[in-house]
Design goal:
12% of the residues lie in helices and 58% in strands. The protein is mainly beta. The protein has a single domain, classed as Porin. It has an eight-stranded antiparallel beta barrel with strand order 1-2-3-5-6-9-10-12. It has a three-stranded antiparallel beta sheet with strand order 4-7-8, with no helix packed on it. The chain is elongated. It starts with a helix and ends with a helix.
């Protein structure tokens, strides 16, 4: 409940800042996410070293400067997380093997980022560091899917676990980038989760995500 309240307050803050005259730059960014999940089975010995998968991300952003070398940046947008099938093979009693239809487990999340940006150099090509928080809210998901050859029936692997996932998760956000003439920027980020997607007596699940994106400060373009 506290986490949801924090997300609502942050969204209201972002909306007010976005319409404020004190914003120094605003725009959007888009790029790729590169994510996986750690599934820790507590009661059985099972290797769940899931593979990383690529996804899409897109954010609206607003930024306020505090002097020449610091800025506060807020972002709100969409990001895909999840993982790729780690060579799971399913065999039936008749000896047939299930056909893999969809090898990616995908979480479709709305995300809010709040970070402090440090800009050590004041130049046309300015590197920067970013550190802050990311709140994710899962709006839907798609599971790894198999098909039984004999009947043609399909079924979603991990579906029972996905139904128990927490909707909201909180994590850190660490980034490094370069700003070109205060107009375009390139950024690489790391988003380790603080909270867990699922934590019960038998299983613990946690996100791990990287990202790369390109952004445009629209107000600098039309200035």
């Amino acid at each position: 409940m506290k986490q949801k309240l924090l997300l609502i307050i942050a969204l209201i803050l972002t909306a007010k800042l976005s319409h404020s005259q004190i914003i120094d730059r605003y725009g959007f960014n888009t790029g790729l996410s590169y994510s996986t999940q750690t599934w820790d089975y507590k009661l059985i010995s099972f290797d769940s070293d899931n593979k990383y998968k690529f996804g899409f991300q897109a954010f609206l952003q607003a930024e306020k400067d505090f002097g020449d070398f610091l800025a506060l940046r807020t972002e709100f947008g969409y990001i895909q997380k999840g993982f790729k099938n780690n060579s799971i093979d399913l065999k039936f009693a008749d000896g047939t093997t299930a056909e893999l239809i969809n090898e990616n487990a995908v979480l479709h999340d709305l995300a809010l980022n709040i970070g402090l940006k440090a800009k050590p150099l004041k130049s046309d090509f300015s590197p920067y560091l970013l550190a802050g928080l990311r709140g994710d809210y899962m709006i839907s998901n798609s599971c790894i899917m198999f098909k039984e050859p004999a009947s043609g029936m399909t079924f979603n692997f991990f579906e029972p676990e996905f139904k128990e996932f927490n909707k909201f998760n909180l994590g850190g956000l660490i980034g490094v980038g370069i700003n070109i003439k205060d107009l375009i920027y390139f950024e690489v980020e790391y988003n380790p989760n603080f909270t867990k997607n699922l934590d019960n007596k038998g299983l613990s699940v946690k996100d791990n995500c990287w990202g790369a994106k390109i952004g445009l400060n629209i107000n600098k373009l039309i200035k």
